[in-house]
Amino acid sequence: MVGCTANEIWDETVEAIENSQRVKEAVRHHGRAYIVKHAGDVEKPENRDRVGVVLGWQNPKPASDSLHIREAFIGLGLRCCSLAFRENSYYGCGFFPEIDPGLSTLGKQAVQLLNRRGVIIDLSHSGDRTAMDAVELSEHPVVFSHSTTRVLTRTRQLSREQTMMNALRRSAPDELIKAAAAKGGIICPDARTETVKDFVNQVDYLVNLAGIEHVGVAGQDDWHRSEKDTKRIRPYLPGYDSTAGEGPREFGDDYRIYRREGQLGPKLFYPEKLAAELKSREYPQADVEKILGGNLVRVFKEVLPS
């Protein structure tokens, strides 16, 4: 299975509807993919050799301050959702502001709605207090779909002060990771690192911290926004209109892919990379399977509607 951000990050409501439909159309035309909507979809015999696509949002902006709009998007197939992206939202706080007041009243209602309708709550971009509030309130396991541990982030040598500040705030503190794990949640360390060994060092740390049942993987493909989305994000993220922070991007009518240099991304999943490194560190095959997707499948079965 793969998680798919089914809209552009700063989409308004109508734009998000259009982009969600574009994603679903692409899946339909793929031939060997399907949209994951129900807990049993991943185990259907007809889906055994196909790629399950989970529609998600990293930014809840398209729902505005309306739970009715949120519920309408769930009807359209939304199955994973963040509570904020970098800055504050109607629901709570993103990772960047220095003061995080926690979940708003609407945010608490949104958590209850997502629980009731079977949508996975993703805390990768939430502030610490907002995320902890969600963990404590949610009746279902939550996930960090692409996060790093703050302890290990502090040891990284990042080139710019702004980059380091973003990385630290964006990463998850140990107490939050443990709280999520205590309720069945999962953290998937981010593959925006240079080597497989660096990535598996994160896995080792998280397994020791939270337990083998609560660690997954995230082979995020980064830096592939459209021109419109890039121009919207540029005021918030300096350098976002460049190629990996180095040179300017070229824009056109097509949806161009820019992969950040020196980072693993999807290459992490090559057979000779992640699985081989885990086995070299004497992870049993059963544990390798849990890390490579088994743990996430468990959460899907617990959270998604039947």
What is shown here, in short?
With 306 residues, this protein is an alpha/beta fold. The chain contains 11 helices and 9 strands.
Strand and helix map with partners:
Elements: E1 2-5, H1 13-30, E2 33-35, E3 51-57, H2 67-75, E4 80-82, H3 105-117, E5 120-122, H4 128-137, E6 143-147, H5 150-153, H6 161-170, H7 174-182, E7 186-189, H8 196-210, H9 227-233, E8 242-243, E9 247-248, H10 274-280, H11 285-303
Parallel strand pairs: 1-3, 2-3, 3-4, 4-5, 6-7
Antiparallel strand pairs: 8-9
Helix pairs in contact: 2-3
Walkthrough of the structure:
- It is a single chain.
- The protein has 2 domains: 2-223 and 264-303, Alpha-Beta Barrel (TIM Barrel); 224-258, no CATH class.
- It is built from 11 helices and 9 strands.
- The protein has helices at residues 13-30, 67-75, 105-117, 128-137, 150-153, 161-170, 174-182, 196-210, 227-233, 274-280, 285-303; strands at residues 2-5, 33-35, 51-57, 80-82, 120-122, 143-147, 186-189, 242-243, 247-248.
- Strands 1, 2, 3, 4 and 5 form a 5-stranded parallel beta sheet that branches. It has a two-stranded parallel ribbon with strand order 6-7.
- β3 (51-57), α2 (67-75) and β4 form a beta-alpha-beta unit.
- α2 runs parallel beside α3.
- The longest helix has 19 residues, at 285-303.
- The chain is globular.
